[in-house]
Automatic annotation (TrEMBL):
The chain crosses the membrane at residues 20-39, 230-256, 281-305, 317-337, 369-390, 396-419, 440-463, 651-671, 703-729, 741-761. InterPro entries: Membrane_comp_ABC_pdt (IPR038766). Signal peptide: none annotated. It comes from Paenibacillus odorifer. GO terms for cellular component: plasma membrane. This is ABC transporter permease. Keywords: Membrane, Transmembrane, Transmembrane helix.
């Protein structure tokens, strides 16, 4: 009998008999293929979005970020202008959005000639925080025309050519509106000469400024995109692992259920080659049907995900060809592992099957090693097609991490099952014998649940956890939670002295300057003078002397600054301001918690006139009494991080939902396979009248172990991610909100319940199986 006839007469009927198992396998493949097709669409649309944003931004060959005056730089710019090179300026200064009090500080960026005088562009973070929309009218405090109504014409979702502080606090772009506060900060746009050449020439004259060519600006944005795609690709990679495992285990389950029929076909005889070909046609239905559906689903889903980030989709020929590449890749991958799984049929012995000695097909160690080694190659090809170098590196790290977790769980299970205490309890003894017999399946199930919980924690808990951890780190390390400047120092002093909301405050006089030492790459620094009588909000000294120990020409630098540039106590720093250079000896370091690391502290010599207040407040009620002041709440950093992470994780959350469904399906398939193999054993136990009780206890013990192991592993992984992120931003510990613990415990319990529901289905209660 030819394979086509066998397929029509047997395999189609077999597919119908196992329709629910096949449905879940197909659903798992649909989800994986859909995610794998969504990622390139997201990447391509965001690349186009970045290119469009770059075209709409200032097309200057070089953008220079200024933070202090420089005569040498100004002289060079004047020379360029005489040569016909075009320059334009954007001035940056703090202002306030007019509301009930002075809490909302932001940055005014003035000099965008493409805007009319009453039009403004605002940042996404500012729009979200103040619930502003295009068409709304706003008024600003701290500008020379305070009564002027300004109309919002656009919300900028991708900040380009914006000073760093403005990105954190929020910003407003205007034509020529001036701040009443003097600031030396701003941007200089230079066009008409090679950006790289301009950068080299100006850096040699003024190394304290930041310089970005148009390629630097573009590469910076694409680097951020690559990191986002890398995070999404982690889910896609695990999704592929699950789908491949589901496909192989599903085919194995089909072989187990059909092995008596296969043995009969072999004895007729029908060639094994034709039996395998007929089975391939059956499996092809499970691959190509999901493939068609994934193409249909991925396009609208990608559009929804991108719309959540205010990005539109342009369906060009290149866009569709990009999708087609990944369709071909998916066909190759799933057909490859289909063929690998069907190779198990070659080892079937029809005589042994007829005698009743049947079960899983014999394992081929070499083939299993081949499957494992092929996975990095498959994921590398996907990363190359995706055009993401970081994704390729992250895939290898993920695979190593999964192997480490797998081995860790395996050793933990081995340890638990060897404990002698279990032999005194019959149900527990049976459970651990069952676990040892199917150890690999049990460990894979825990690993699946661990990864699902980890992704849920990242997608739905990372942003808030990071904000709370950073805020707490600042609260514990910094002597202040508000930075304030004012045009009326006497009035502000009265409020701070008399308000019950104020715990301590320090007044500092400062000068922005440049450091000349070659080992320091970021040249901008601020020298802060402190009068001992006005020093109540005190910095924590980490090493060396305090502010008022030693002489006034000795300074303290932040520990972060010292570590970054390998500066030791006793080193001399050359500080320049207005062409005057002063040498300062480093006498100690203080804890800056990652904020304003370039601040340097010294005892007052009454040299500087600019004033800043560091305020430690218990409550913010005092703000209602403060007038004509600029106020920065340190929570603005956490809020900025929350906003950035929410934007970064928007796509991640959508993909995470799909992964959760895939993980549940994988667990159901895995346990269904094992329950099929243990079906007769369960029936015998029930027939003896002791089965229900033992099986319920077995289920509960397995569930408890799975939940405890997966919760522990996922929380450890999440804590590592948070700790690394927090340490990169500030000094603090990871703080996971209690509600997240409850949330993932509930999720893990539901996951285990759904995965094991097949144990109590009708077919496993059928005692007729004993007669087979």
């Amino acid at each position: 009998m030819k394979y086509r006839e066998l397929f029509k007469l047997y395999n189609l009927k077999n597919l119908n008999q196992n329709k629910w198992s096949m449905f879940f396998i197909a659903l798992s493949i649909v989800i994986t293929m859909t995610v794998s097709l969504i990622l390139p669409q997201i990447r391509m649309s965001k690349q186009e979005y970045i290119n469009q944003a770059m075209q709409e931004s200032n097309p200057a060959d070089l953008v220079v970020t200024q933070s202090f005056p420089s005569k040498s730089f100004d002289k060079a710019i004047s020379a360029y202008e005489q040569e016909g090179i075009q320059t334009s300026y954007v001035h940056s200064a703090p202002v306030y959005l007019k509301n009930e009090n002075n809490q909302m500080m932001l940055y005014l960026l003035s000099g965008y000639e493409n805007l009319s005088e009453d039009e403004v562009v605002i940042s996404e973070g500012l729009a979200n925080k103040q619930h502003l929309n295009v068409g709304d009218t706003i008024h600003l405090i701290g500008v020379k025309e305070q009564d002027k109504a300004l109309k919002i014409t656009r919300i900028e979702y991708l900040p380009i050519d914006v000073v760093d502080d403005a990105q954190v606090s929020g910003y407003i772009k205007t034509n020529n509106l001036e701040s009443s506060y003097h600031s030396d900060a701003g941007l200089v746009f230079i066009s008409g000469k090679s950006g790289e050449l301009l950068k080299q020439e100006l850096q040699s004259l003024e190394s304290g400024y930041k310089y970005k060519t148009i390629e630097d600006r573009r590469n910076e944005l694409f680097s951020d995109l690559d990191k986002q795609i890398m995070a999404l690709n982690l889910i896609s990679t695990v999704g592929y692992l699950l789908a491949i495992a589901v496909l192989i285990s599903g085919i194995t389950m089909l072989i187990v259920r059909s092995q008596k029929d296969i043995a009969a076909f072999m004895l007729i005889p029908i060639k094994m080659k034709d039996i395998i070909k007929a089975m391939k046609l059956e499996i092809n239905i499970l691959i190509f049907t999901p493939l068609i559906l994934s193409v249909i689903f991925s396009i609208p889903l990608a559009k929804i995900i991108l719309a959540a980030e205010n990005i539109s989709v342009n369906y060009t020929a290149a866009y569709m060809i990009n999708i087609l590449k990944f369709v071909v890749f998916n066909i190759f991958v799933f057909l490859l592992y289909r063929n690998v799984a069907l190779k198990y049929m070659v080892n079937l012995d029809p005589v042994l099957i007829v005698k009743g000695d049947h079960g899983l097909p014999k394992r081929n160690r070499l083939r299993n090693i081949g499957i494992i080694l092929s996975l990095p190659v498959v994921f590398s090809v996907y990363a190359v097609l995706l055009g993401s170098g970081t994704s390729m590196a992250s895939n290898f790290i993920l695979l190593i991490t999964l192997c480490a977790i797998f081995i860790g769980i395996l050793l933990l299970i081995e340890l638990i099952t060897r404990l002698p205490v279990w032999k005194y309890h019959r149900s527990t003894l049976y459970t651990f014998k069952e676990i040892k017999k199917n150890k690999l399946v049990f460990v894979i199930g825990i690993l699946n649940l661990t990864m699902m919980l980890w992704f849920i924690l990242i997608g739905f808990g990372l942003a808030n956890t990071l904000k709370e951890s950073v805020d707490m780190g600042y609260q514990q390390s910094l002597p202040y939670n508000y930075l304030m400047k004012t045009s009326d120092e006497e009035a502000l002093n009265q409020v701070l002295v008399n308000s019950g909301d104020i715990k301590t405050f320090t007044i500092m006089h400062y000068m922005d300057a440049k450091i000349e030492n070659d080992e320091v790459s970021n040249k901008q620094v601020r020298i802060n003078e402190i009068d001992q009588k006005n020093y109540t909000s005190k910095f924590k000294i980490t090493e060396g002397q305090d502010v008022f120990e030693g002489n006034p020409r000795e300074i303290l630098i932040s520990k972060a600054y010292a570590d970054a540039y390998k500066i030791n106590i006793g080193n001399t720093l050359e500080i320049t301001n207005e062409e005057k250079t002063v040498n300062y000896r480093v006498k100690g370091t203080y804890d800056s918690a990652g904020i304003n690391n370039n601040w340097m502290l010294k005892a007052s010599e009454n040299q500087y006139s600019d004033t800043i207040y560091l305020v430690r407040a218990i409550d913010d009620g005092f703000l209602n009494e403060v007038k004509d002041s600029y106020i920065a709440n340190m929570n603005v950093v956490g809020d900025y991080l929350l906003s950035k992470m929410d934007s970064f994780l928007t796509s991640f959350k959508y993909i995470c939902f799909l992964f959760i469904v895939a993980a549940v399906i994988f667990n159901v398939n895995l346990l269904s396979l094992m329950n099929d193999l243990n079906r007769k054993e369960y029936a015998i136990i029930r027939s003896l009248g002791i089965g229900k009780k033992i099986l319920v206890k077995q289920y509960m013990i397995k569930a408890i172990i799975s939940i405890i192991c997966s919760l522990t592993m996922s929380l450890v992984l999440f804590s590592v991610v948070i700790s690394v992120a927090v340490s990169a931003i500030s000094k603090g510990n990871a703080i996971i909100d209690g509600s997240m613990y409850v949330f993932i415990i509930v999720i893990s319990v539901l996951f285990v319940l759904v995965g094991n529901i097949s144990l109590f289905s009708g077919k496993y209660n059928d005692l007729e199986v004993i007669r087979e």
